[in-house]
Specification:
alpha+beta, 28% helix, 61 residues
Amino acid sequence: MQIVDTPGFKGTGVLHCKQCLKLWQRDINAAINMMTISQAVWSGAGRPDVFKPAKNKKVSP
């Protein structure tokens, strides 16, 4: 992915994929992720594993 310089936007919120030629805007991607999680929870399937936080592993000294 390559960062796209977009006038009117601050930061690096837009990425361009050279393989699929799509533009990825972080706010839209976040909204899609939230809808995916919501639909899974509402259907009774629970939160998808890919969106679950990583479990902390305790390291013994």
